[in-house]
Specification:
heterodimer; A: 98 residues; mainly alpha; two-stranded antiparallel sheet; 4 helices; 2 strands; 37% helix; 4% strand; B: 497 residues; alpha/beta; Amidase signature (AS) enzymes; eleven-stranded mixed sheet; protein biosynthesis (chain A)
Chain lengths: 98, 497
């Protein structure tokens, strides 16, 4: 089992949208390495023939009738927005300049 | 004069219904108690004095008009800060939701209000319910009322501490891997994780959706049953809500007859890592069940030894996806939006500033387990283990009606002892996790004090899915027998603070 390096933690941080600080990298690397080492034993026990379980209930899609119901007003929905403009969530730039 | 904070929920409701006291007097007594001692305990993140008094006045008004009151009308409750409350802050113990005022009530919150239950405030918890000690709260730890230098369990440590310090007779918790039962065990209180899907998750901030389950916390088994009945039931707003009648939990709690009941002792939950005093109290409980007429046998569930490992892959994987919604764009914290940074940069800065270390660890762990190349070995294998654990339960419940074990391997540990040692912290959930993975119902109730440290020990009872009533039948029997032996409820022995 490969050890978790600080470079890997930095990569996981990017995938997870976490702007990790330099001092966090070594700390998390050691802890994640220990945890992953301990949980890796799940691969020892179940054979090819065991089906996976993703959920305790045998549910398929649950549908409701497509009818209009009351919902939040724009004012309520925007009441905790960090920034808003013209009844919309105002967000930082999403697309590049070009 | 009766100390209104020392009554059970059932007693309180009866006194309000008979007019011996009023809901407002009861609410005031508890708000006074909170004001007097919560600085020491830190069970509450937010106390809603105005809301509580208004709800209590509404109950008194109904009674004055001769309207019929529900079985818990006017009884105060401490609500875990993971359920949305319209107009009242909901933080999930995280800085990323500091100051957020939800515009809607969770279904559970709505049901509490409809039952006339008086919500005193929101309780402290490990951030996003990730932890076993409440030390991961961004707002500081909660003390265990038995010894304020020790943890009250987690993630629902605020709720368990509020009960054990008589700040509320009822509380709500959520249990993903043990967050209702382990806090109950270490504080000498009662906590129930209902069958998965029994209590709506609508408006409950999601951690691991296939495992999360809200449930009742109380000081007695009957009080927990009354609360269970108030919050359970099908909810069209939660697609994983079970469309089945609520099992007769109150009736079971009032019966407490275990004669002829088959009880299985899980062989795998003993040995290395289990405190001697915990095992002593557990063995007492098993002996007690025999004396009460139950038929006790040992059962083996070999896959349970892999449950902790499977859980720490499944729960982080689901959380890495669930917590992606905290992006700093629509609500909650936004950091670093100076006009020059992109949305993605702002999201990354916001999450770095808003999440604590345990949440970051779990998001990264889940991201790792789900990444291509590792998916089959980690997440895929963990899901197979989940199947094996479910099969172990099915086999066991073919032979016995309920399973029993210690709730957690040790009594409350000192604050700080395991704070930066994740693997040591995770061991607190060793016995509680299998029921989450399989979706079964499970309870923890007090079974005495460990002789070596004088701290409470919890007995765990596990029942098959949809047989939640069995927990209450067994729990009520054990509770009555122990209370008779001790001469008083266990919490009478806790410091008065």
């Amino acid at each position: 089992m490969p050890g978790i390096t600080r470079e890997e933690v930095a990569h996981l941080g990017r995938l997870s949208r976490l702007e990790l600080k330099v001092e966090e990298l070594d700390h998390f690397a050691a802890q994640l390495d220990e945890i992953i080492g301990a949980v890796a034993r799940v691969s020892e026990v179940a054979g090819e023939d065991v089906p996976p379980t993703s959920h305790p209930l045998p549910l398929t899609n649950v549908m409701r009738p497509d009818t209009v119901r009351p919902s939040l007003t724009p004012e309520q929905a925007l009441s905790c927005a960090p920034a808003q403009e013209q009844q919309r969530f105002k967000v930082p730039q999403i697309l590049g300049e070009d | 004069m009766t100390d209104l904070t020392r009554l059970t929920a059932a007693e309180t409701a009866a006194k309000i219904a008979s007019g011996e006291t009023s809901a407002v007097e009861v609410a005031k007594a508890h708000l006074d108690r909170i004001a007097a001692i919560d600085e020491k305990v830190h069970a509450f993140l937010h106390v809603d004095t105005e809301g509580a008094l208004a709800a209590a006045r509404a109950v008194d008004g109904k009674r004055a008009k001769g309207e019929k009151l529900g079985p818990l009308a006017g009884v105060p409750l401490a609500l875990k800060d993971i359920f949305t409350t319209e107009g009242v802050p909901t933080t999930v113990g995280s800085k990323i939701l500091e100051g957020w005022i939800p515009p809607y009530d969770a279904t559970l919150t709505r049901k509490l209000k409809d039952a006339g239950i008086v919500i005193l405030g929101k309780t402290n918890m490990d951030e996003f319910a990730m932890g076993s000690s409440t030390e991961n709260s961004a707002y500081g730890p909660t003390g265990n009322p038995w010894d304020l230098t020790r943890i009250p369990g987690g993630s629902g440590g605020g709720s368990s501490a509020a009960l054990a310090s008589f700040q509320a007779p009822l509380a709500i918790g959520t249990d993903t891997g043990g967050s209702i039962r382990q806090p109950a065990a270490v504080t000498g209180t009662v906590g129930v994780k209902p069958t998965y899907g029994a209590v709506s998750r609508y408006g409950m901030v999601a951690f691991s959706s296939s495992l999360d389950q809200g449930g009742p916390c109380a000081r007695t088994v009957l009080d927990a049953a009354l609360l269970h009945e108030a919050i359970a039931g099908h909810d069209p707003l939660d697609s994983t809500s079970i469309d089945a009648p609520v099992p007769p939990v109150v009736e079971a709690a009032r019966s407490g007859d275990v004669r002829g009941l088959r009880v299985g002792v899980v062989k795998e939950f003993a040995g290395e890592g289990y405190q001697a005093g915990v095992m002593e109290r557990f063995n007492d409980s098993v002996e007690m069940l025999r004396e009460l007429g139950a038929e006790v046998v040992e059962v083996s569930c070999p896959s349970f030894t892999y449950a902790l490992a499977a859980y720490y892959l499944i729960a982080p994987s689901e959380c890495s996806s669930n917590l992606a919604r905290f992006d700093g764009l629509r609500y909650g914290l936004r950091t670093g939006d100076d006009g020059t940074r992109s949305a993605e940069e702002v999201t990354s800065l916001t999450r770095e500033a808003g999440f604590g270390p345990e949440v970051k660890r779990r998001i990264m762990l889940g991201t790792y387990a789900l990444s291509s190349g590792y998916y089959d070995a980690y997440y895929g294998s963990a899901q197979k283990v989940r199947t094996l654990i479910t099969r172990d339960f099915e086999r066991a419940f073919g032979e016995v009606d309920v399973l029993v074990s210690p709730t957690t391997p040790t009594t409350a540990f000192p604050i700080g002892e395991r704070a930066d040692d994740p693997m040591a912290m995770y061991l607190a959930d060793l016995c509680t996790i299998p029921a989450n993975l399989a979706g079964n119902a499970a309870m923890s109730l007090p079974c005495g004090l460990a002789p070596e440290d004088g701290l409470p020990v919890g007995l765990q009872i596990i029942a098959p899915a949809l047989a939640d009533d069995r927990l209450y039948r067994v729990g009520a029997a054990v509770e009555a027998a122990f209370t008779a032996r001790w001469g008083h409820p266990l919490l009478e022995e806790a410091p008065t603070l």
